[in-house]
Amino acid sequence: MVGSGLGAAWRISIEIVVALVVCTGIGWALDYWFGTKPWLMLLFLFLGGAAGINNAVRTALRMDAQAAEDLQRRSQAELKSGTRASPEDRAGSEKGEGRDG
DSSP secondary structure string, 35-51? Predict the structure, then answer.
């Protein structure tokens, strides 16, 4: 599970950086075109930051909802099967203990 968390962190950070770079580039190009240096670039820099943070928050909320749904589904499956693992067993299976290979 560490790899999926690391991948999500990279995805979120890259989304923020890309939003900043793209919006700053658009602002720079508009400044060049209209001759308003540096005001549109600064405006689009802040808009890009807001868009990047908005995407990061939405992604984090979506991941949290998915994790809660998976946990609920797993606990319902355990209740139906009647095999409720002890906390020590669950901790061992999350660490990868007991696997062959």
Answer: T-TTHHHHHHHHHHHHH
